[in-house]
UniProtKB/TrEMBL annotation:
Keywords: ATP-binding, DNA damage, DNA repair, DNA-binding, Helicase, Hydrolase, Isomerase, Nucleotide-binding. It comes from Halobellus ruber. Residues 40-219 form the Helicase ATP-binding domain. Residues 260-405 form the Helicase C-terminal domain. This is DEAD/DEAH box helicase. GO terms for biological process: DNA repair.
Length: 948
């Protein structure tokens, strides 16, 4: 690897041949852009390189002009197969890349084509018989191509591979899969040039090794921070917002956000409005629909036709803005964008740079973005990210090293490639890929044996040979992607017979029923019917404004530790000034020198800090933890980001639960860990756990705690599918999560599930290091006897402000009505002679047995014959004893809490333990009780396929 200053002058194009230089002149490329000036000479010399440069600076041409030149200069007889692959992470980018490259191909007589999952069989056959010079494709399609007889012959001529948006792949398992795919290609074609392109990379050396297999490469990096400008804004309430609130049937605060975004859009010609979730995109889009603004919604759950339609209308100038998610991050061509709005903190520096980089696609033009925030946490976080982005402080890639399900998947791929292969050769191909360089032989053999046991290949131990089995072909083509399958329903407008988009199964299970209304594409739809066999929801458009915003699969974007710690540092600086008597405006003006915002926005964000200082409470900072509590609620204020706080949260839940013998509820944000502890526990228990737990005990404690967690069980099922232990093509047959865990313990499947949870969700080493800092005094731990302004701040900041309040109210009312209409079975555990099935709404406030007058009444599902039989039995096995204990726990709840317990127990997937946790929360509003029930039902729907 080399990373040296390059001074190749303005004549970078001189390193290209006559044909390409003539095409450059015809195209009007008089002088190279900065990345072209620096990168084209080494690329033309055939070197591997990672090119990092802002969007709109000609990265595609930077990579492809030297490739075109090499193809044009090659001997015509050497151009029979594929010369170059251009790999992109999105199919939509394939379409754009082909359009962008076609002029060059036509001018230079270089044939360019596209191949992905939607390519017709006719076109595939044509490509196999007469390969193009350049093929634009996806990582998954490369997997399939490597196994085709004719395509393997074409691929054997590959001399160049360009990987676009390489940062997107570097931190994902599909990227780890691609690295082995490239080594499989190298085994077929021999060495080839590798070129990676990205607008943002936080760890260039690591990503370069990821791309090249740690072979020699150059880094050509153009400073991204100098090409962008940001402003962070929190809306000020105006008289206009009160009027707008009435028009939108919402409150003035939400109206102020909508008004501010609308005003920014009106001040520019073409704006992308980025949001972090599809729910927010739909909710915000519906507001603009209500105001009849020329603004549409774009996200991955909309149908392909809908997405292409809004892209083309935006490109043509018919739309002023698109409200979009990460679907627009990766450079889909929508024409010129002159401004970007980020609604809410972008959570990561790389994400902000990628998004704002979409604006200003002219040479030497700065990209500008406005971050619109909704709460103090949100504002301080956005300020930290904006400052870091301007300084080019991008997060490092988090590569999946030694992911064993990827190894399993690719071993099968190698067997598919070669039919029969030695285990030694397969091991060599796998470990040539950078993420797997440290994979030891014994672990590799364990994976092979697991595959053999699952009949995905034949293992001949004596000959050290791997061969195809009956299940090899079927498994391989069912697992071309490392992206886990999530069941989705297609949404169809029956009035036009056109596709609208998709909905997650969990949303359909929890909410969808004929007559229900929801928001999609920024419009309201009413469900006509649901076809479960075809996974299809038929809808009609309506004007009703009270639709539910669908939930889609996708985890929350985690805030990195360095961003959260900078928020803690801002708090510390502000608190010091407040303690000397400075007012909010003075503190805000002082911070303006460092952060791109205005006095009002900063002053609003500093309010909780000022109040905390006035109350004499300790301020949570980067090196100070603060524990506070009231009743059963205990909060650990920790400004260390999602993954570290998730680690601390799980550790505390496990150890406090161990002390008390009861489960502990947990909710995590980047700045606090909220615990719901048993009545016999307190904030003091949390403090003692932190003070006494040794750093070296963090990892084993968490692994032990994980065994009973839904997270591990869910991940285990996904990993098992990639090992062939759960064959997806067998349909939806259910296998209990606990049985799965028992069956796969002490296998590489279990090891990989634990590794993935630790890698994706937790930061064990960092958390252990922080514990060590607490023990040696480098960090402090303080307590507040009651809830503080900062400690309670997460509740408001965690909610998306644009979600319609009336929709929320209508959904809660629907949940309440449904539960009250459900039937329950009441059973007296005192005399065991009385049982009665009735609707929840008919149950008395304090149920009692009409036979003996006892109040120990168990609330069961109406079909629960097994528990009734177990209660009445004199001789019980272990399962019957378990059912009886569960019934007594339910009866104890009903005896203590009456009908409220019956309502909680009647909910889907809510057992006595969960019901007790729901009932025990302190609330001022009955709707919060039903919100907690709905939250639990959705959690159950997400994991129920892994229960017996």
């Amino acid at each position: 690897m080399t990373d040296r200053p390059v001074n190749r002058g303005m004549d970078a194009f001189a390193s290209l041949g006559d044909a390409v230089r003539a095409a450059l002149s015809e195209r009007g490329f008089a002088t190279p852009t900065e990345p072209q000036r620096r990168a084209i000479p080494p690329l033309a010399a055939g070197r591997n390189a990672l090119v990092i440069a802002p969007t709109g600076t000609g990265k595609t041409e930077t990579a492809m002009l030297p490739v075109f030149d090499a193809i044009v200069r090659a001997d015509p007889e050497e151009r029979e197969g594929l010369s170059a692959l251009y790999i992109t992470p999105l199919r939509a980018l394939n379409r754009d890349m082909r359009e962008r490259l076609e002029w060059w191909g036509s001018t230079l007589d270089v044939e360019i084509d596209v191949r992905h999952g939607d390519t017709t069989q006719y076109q595939r056959s044509k490509q196999a018989d007469d390969p193009p010079d350049v093929l634009v494709t996806t990582p998954e399609t490369l997997q399939a191509m490597l196994t085709g007889k004719k395509l393997r012959s074409a691929l054997s001529d590959v001399r160049h591979v360009v990987v676009d948006e390489v940062h997107e792949l570097a931190s994902a398992k599909r990227g780890a899969q691609l690295t082995i795919g490239l080594e499989r290609l190298r085994a077929l074609a021999g060495p080839f040039q590798r070129i990676g392109l990205s607008a943002t990379v936080g760890s260039p050396e690591e990503v370069g090794r990821f791309l090249t297999g740690d072979r020699d490469f150059e880094i050509i990096a153009v400073d991204v921070g100098s090409e962008v400008e940001f402003e962070v804004v929190h809306p000020e309430l105006t008289p206009e917002d009160e009027r707008l609130a009435g028009e939108l049937a919402t409150d003035a605060t939400i109206a102020s956000h909508v008004r501010l975004v609308r005003d920014i859009v009106c001040d520019h010609e073409s704006t992308l409005v980025f949001v972090n979730t599809r729910q927010t995109a739909e909710a915000l889009g519906s507001r603009f629909k209500a105001l009849d603004e020329p603004i549409e919604v774009h996200h991955g759950s909309l149908s392909k036709d809908v997405r292409i339609d809004v892209e083309e209308r935006f490109k043509a100038g018919d739309l002023d803005a698109l409200v979009c998610t990460s679907s627009m991050e990766l450079g889909i061509d929508v024409g010129r964008v002159d401004h970007v709005v980020q609604y809410g903190s972008p959570r990561e520096v790389s994400r902000l740079l990628q998004r704002v980089g979409r604006a200003g696609h002219r040479r030497d033009e700065v990209s500008r973005g406005t971050l619109v925030t909704s709460s103090p946490d949100d504002t301080l976080e956005a300020l930290a990210i904006a400052r870091r982005a301007a300084s080019g402080e991008v997060e490092p890639a988090r590569i999946h090293h030694a992911s064993l399900d990827t190894v399993a998947n690719q071993i099968v791929g190698i067997v598919m490639d070669e039919g029969e292969v030695s285990a030694r050769r397969a091991y060599g191909i796998v470990t040539a890929a950078y993420p797997f360089a440290d994979l030891d032989e014994e672990t590799f053999r364990q994976v092979v044996r697991e595959l053999s046991k699952n009949r995905l290949l034949w293992l001949d131990e004596d000959r050290d040979r791997l061969e195809k089995s009956g299940g090899t072909w079927q498994y391989f083509y069912a697992n071309l992607s490392m992206i886990p399958d999530e069941e989705t329903y297609e949404v169809h407008d029956i009035s036009s017979r056109g596709p609208v988009g998709t909905l997650d199964e969990r949303f359909v299970v929890n909410f969808a029923e004929p007559g229900a209304a929801f928001v999609q594409r920024g419009e309201m739809w009413r469900i006509n019917d649901i076809n479960d066999d075809e996974a299809r929801v038929n809808v009609t458009p309506i004007e009703d404004p009270s639709g539910e915003v669908p939930s889609w699969t996708g985890s929350e974007i985690p805030v990195p530790a360095h961003v959260a710690r900078e928020v803690g540092e801002i708090r510390a600086v502000a608190a010091d000034q407040f303690e000397t008597g400075a007012d909010r405006e003075a503190v805000a003006r002082d911070l303006l020198a460092r952060y791109p915002t205005d006095t009002h926005t900063l002053a609003t964000a500093l309010t909780p800090i000022e109040r905390q200082v006035e109350a004499g409470r300790p301020i949570p900072t980067a090196d100070r933890f603060v524990v506070e509590g009231r009743g059963r609620e205990v909060v650990l204020n920790s400004t260390h980001g999602h993954r570290i706080n998730e680690t601390f949260g799980r550790l505390l839940a496990a150890l406090v639960g161990q002390r008390t013998g009861s489960s502990v509820g947990m909710e995590v944000s980047p700045y606090r860990i909220e615990l719901e502890v048993p009545s016999r526990a307190s904030a003091r228990d949390v403090v003692e756990v932190l003070e006494t737990t040794q750093p070296e005990h963090v990892e084993p404690t968490l692994e032990l705690a994980l065994r009973n967690s839904e997270t591990l069980k869910f991940t285990l099922a996904q990993v098992a599918a990639k090992f062939g232990a759960l064959k997806r093509y067998q349909g939806r047959e259910r296998f209990g999560a606990d049985r799965l865990l028992a069956a796969l313990a002490d296998t590489p499947v279990y090891d990989e599930a634990v590794r993935e949870v630790f890698h994706v969700d937790l930061a064990v080493d960092a958390a252990a290091s922080l514990l060590a800092d607490l023990h040696d005094g480098s960090a402090s731990l303080e307590t507040a006897r009651e809830r503080t302004p900062i400690g309670t701040g997460g509740r408001s900041s965690g909610r998306e402000l644009v979600v319609p309040e009336n929709a929320d109210a209508s959904v809660i009312e629907t949940v309440k009505e449904r539960i009250h209409d459900d039937r329950v079975r009441l059973l007296c555990l005192h005399c065991t002679d009385w049982e009665h099935t009735t609707k929840v709404r008919r149950v008395r406030d304090q149920p009692e047995c009409p036979e003996c007058g006892a109040t120990r009444i168990a609330c069961l599902n109406p079909w629960d014959e097994e528990t009734v039989a177990a209660v009445g039995a004199t001789d019980r096995d272990d399962e019957a004893e378990r059912l009886v204990k569960r019934a007594y726990r339910a009866a104890s709840l009903v005896q203590s809490h009456g009908k409220q317990a019956v309502i909680a127990l009647a909910a889907r997937g809510v057992g006595p333990q969960t019901a007790a946790r729901i009932i025990g929360k302190l609330r001022e509003d009955e709707r919060d009780f039903y919100r907690d029930i709905l939250k639990q039902e959705r959690q159950y729907a997400r994991t129920q396929s892994f229960w017996d």
